[in-house]
Input
Amino acid sequence: MPTATHDRDSLKQVVGDLAIFGGTPAFNNPLHVGQPNIGDRKKFAERVNDILDRRWLTNGGSYVSEFEERIAETAGVAHCVAICNATIGLEIAIRALNLKGEVIVPSFTFIATAHALQWQEITPVFCDIDPQTHCLDPERVEALITPRTTGIIGVHLWGRPCEIDSLTEIATRRALKLLFDAAHAFACTYKGRPVGSFGDAEVFSFHATKFLNSMEGGAVVTNDADLAQKMRLMRNFGFTHYDQTDSIGVNGKLNEVSAAMGLTNLESMAEFIAINRRHHKQYEEELAGLAGIRLLHYDERERSNYQYVVLEIDDATTGISRDQLMDVLHAERVLARRYFYPGCHRMEPYRTLYANAPLSLPQTESVAAQVLTLPTGEAVTSAMIRDVCEIIRLVLDNATEVRKLLEERLPA
Output
């Protein structure tokens, strides 16, 4: 676990103390946004030893089955199909739902959401977002539907569900499939219902950077038994029997060791969420009153995993840009990240395929230029958060000087 290098008697007092200007970095080791939660190592080791003793490493072992049951229970659904990762989960769900032609998606999301479509020669139609929620704007979705549209993929960004009711109404009325990328939203709720139980299916990620991880892994959850069975076949080459395939498929199976890690972390999930919530509250208190800084909040009426601490930096008010603040933090070994910059539409192949996309995505462009996420999770301490916030306050309190010094460092 990274530890702070300084004590309360040697804090950074002036701009010259900042590491980017020659001062000593605040932390010995990098402080990551998504440093993995580990859980009970002893319990995990016991499960791994059991796997090795039984010599059943993959292909539908008992730990995968148990993991699927636990995920389905938490998500309030009838079926869970565990997958080797969420990207393959998206691809399998997209194919199982027979999506084709055009599918409406946000550009402000992880690139896998778009790639899962493009990989299957389906056109991702990038839709703008609500600047308050960072999720799909339903009014913009409606305007983008064409005769070629077969579905909508909503993304529950930061664990905050998108406008599920509005998207469901549109999808139902226009006879479209509705899939949710719920990579951020495991153990969250929407109007009291668990995320996972909406649309035709939802896809979770249990990648190492998620608050609940299986090292690598994902799952597709649904209440549609036929869809679940189709996806189970797809994740295992289409095999219906030992030596027979009745349909096309890939190798998308989750292995037993990953499932063991997932089960171990499920046993610590309440603790992980409590830590995240406590960290989020501390960031909220420490950064209160800083002009030009907006910390995204979670609805206390809902259940959330609090796994992301998301700032919006308004440089017109702060006097310093998001990227400049990030550079200062990185020099201190605080590896804040500008999720999901610059937006899928500005990455290849979409930047070339849809060169005019920025013109129709003004809110995406604005949010992508402002968002900065900060470290949280089991490996982060209250003292670390205090120190990170004091660095941010020092920068903002001296924004004019810091900006001038940073600009002087740029090559002529």
